[in-house]
Amino acid sequence: MENFKSYAGVKEIGPFHKCFSSVVGPNGSGKSNVIDAMLFVFGKRAKKLRLNKVSELIHSSDAFKNNPLTYAKVSVYFNDIIDTGDGDDDYEVVPNSEIIVSRTALRNNSSSYRLNGKNCKFKDVATYLDSKGVNLDNNRFLILQGEVEMISMMPPKGKTDNDEGLLEYLEDIIGSNQFVEETNQAAENVDLLTEQRQERLNRVKAIEAEKENLEGAKLEAEALLAKDREIRKKKNILLQKHSLIVDVEIEEEGEKRKILEHELEDERLKLKEANEQVALFEKSLEEDTNEYEMMQKEMLRTKEEFSAHERRHIKLNEDIKHGKESLKKIEGKIEVEENKIIKLEEKVEKAEENIPALAEDIEEFTENKTDEDEKLEKIFEEIKAETEALRPELEEKKRELAPIKRERAVFQSSLDTAIMEVKLLEDSTARSKEQLRAAEKELNSLDDVQEEKRARLENCKKEIKGAEQRIIDAKSEETNLIGKEKALTEKYSELTVSHSRQ
Q: Mean per-residue pLDDT for 81-93?
């Protein structure tokens, strides 16, 4: 220890005993400080060392009041040894096995660990010591002063598996607790084997007693077996006599069997021919079935086409009906428009008849106007008063001429409109007639297709009936052949059984 608590400077304690060491002495002699030094190296905090902080571990006597120390250090030296006897010095140190674990405390309440002079973490120290059998988490190797009384008060053995007694404590210290589970398992195995041994021993005794009780039955059984042997011997003689009789019967039955074999061979040939005929029928049936399926598909397709054509026929009938109604309406409208045209033509003729008269009136009025203008110009200067009197008459003549011009323009416009409507009606009538002719032509074509499909459908139905009849005949023939085959099989089975019995 170096400057640790009450130890100023460097103090060496030890070496400790190879198995067990105890620190004893009067109060104040430094026992606790030795244990605290070990706890310090092995990672305990200052609270565990009865201090508040790590810096209080540094020696602080009056001798160093003016020049206080800056650190405290504890180093523990380990060696691997080989025991050579029970004495204190009966051991050998393994060469080059020395390990030094040290911890240094500083004034700033920090500390550092070193392993063999190299800085490291406490985790590295704990891992290394654990590999050597020193468990810092459960330090059974270091018993404190207060723990001695607790150990002395322990019961000899724990009452339950979770309780700890003196036995469990000592086993934990010496390391024998690792064999507890195996020991308990071995004890359970011993108890189980003992129970099995006793059970089998009891069974042997019971069997021996039962064997003694069955001795009389054994003698009786032996006598019965002797009688049974005698009976079997006589039965054997009887069977030999029967065997001779059966041999003669077998020869007779052999002749019958040969005759039946010839008959069976004939039946097999007939059966083979029947099977070949059945195969032909089956092939024909398969072909008829395929043809029937094709006809069925063709019939379904024909039905669908017939339904489609029928729907189209109905639609075309409706279209024709609608076209006829439309044509009738158009013809009525044409008739009305033709009447209008006739009336308009009459009006035009009347207007055209009036046009020459009106034109003559216009020319007459124009000539009169010109003459009047000339006269007016000649006499304008002479008789302005008379001109002023004639001016209203001139205006009156113009007003009379204006309605005639407007009426002529109206008649011309009505005539142009009527001519255009007639042309449109004629075009519409031509288109309707063309559509009607196309619809009638398509309807006639659909009627022909429908008749052709119906004829094909009738032919298909006739062919299907013929195929169904052929299928019925083939099935009947197959049933007859199956009956014959069954009869032949039964007869063959009887012959086989009879032969096996012989």
A: 86
Q: Which amino acid belongs to residue 287?
A: E
Handedness of CA 478, 479, 481, 485 (dihedral sign): positive
Nearest partner of 457 among 311, 287, 304, judged by Cα: 304
Q: How many domains does the chain have?
A: 2
Name the one residue in this structure whose structure tokens are 């200067």.
381
Say which CATH number the domain at 131 has: 3.40.50.300
Structural domain containing residue 86: 2-153
Q: DSSP H helical segments within 77-165, as ranges?
A: 122-131, 145-152
What are the backbone dihedrals phi and psi of residue 229, each rounded to the nearest 5 degrees, phi first? Answer: -65, -40
Q: Are residues 300 and 446 in the same domain?
A: yes
Q: From CA 453, how far away is CA 446, in angstroms rounded?
A: 10
Total-model pTM? 0.37
Is residue 477 within 8 Å of 250, Cβ to Cβ?
no
Give the pLDDT mean for 135-156.
73
The residue among 405 and 223 whose pLDDT is bigger is: 223
Confidence of residue 305 (pLDDT cuts 50, 70, 90): confident
H or E element: which one contains 76?
Answer: strand 71-78
Residue-wise pLDDT tens digits, 158-192 = 777 667 777 777 776 666 666 777 887 888 899 99
For 475-495, give the DSSP string. HHHHHHHHHHHHHHHHHHHHH
324 CB-near residues (< 8 Å, 6+ apart): 436
